[in-house]
Design goal:
Elements lengths: L4 H5 L5 E4 L3 H12 L4 E4 L13 E2 L1 H9 L3 H5 L2 E4 L1 E4 L2 E4 L9 E4 L1
Parallel strand pairs: 1-2
Antiparallel strand pairs: 3-7, 4-7, 5-6
């Protein structure tokens, strides 16, 4: 739900997160879990209906785990170690904690 500009104007917070997309919401949740107050500003009044990402990279899986969100994500997608984009093959490095790319379905 969007907060009217009049309500945001009177709200003082040490941090302003601009954008309520995946990165902005992730950052706001990270701050909240550390006890740091923030305000999220988003120009859209409704959610978008299309996806903006194909997958979640291994370092992001570690961050989702730290926030306690990883198990829910893993229930809703697939793991892959190799992706083929036309004539380009991308392989995940084996030394990472999560050595796969997680695809969102």
């Amino acid at each position: 739900m969007a907060v009217p500009k009049s309500e945001v104007a009177g709200n003082i917070a040490p941090i302003i997160v601009v954008g309520a997309g995946p990165v902005g919401l992730f950052q706001a949740l990270s701050l909240y879990q550390k006890g740091i107050e923030c305000v999220i500003l988003e120009k859209r009044s409704e959610a978008i209906s299309d996806t903006r990402s194909l997958g979640i990279h291994p370092p992001c899986l570690v961050m989702l785990e730290e926030l306690g969100l990883l198990s829910e994500f893993l229930k809703k997608g697939i793991q892959t170690k190799i992706l083929l984009f036309l004539d380009y093959v991308w392989q995940i490095q084996e030394f990472l904690k999560y050595n796969y790319l997680f695809l969102i379905l």
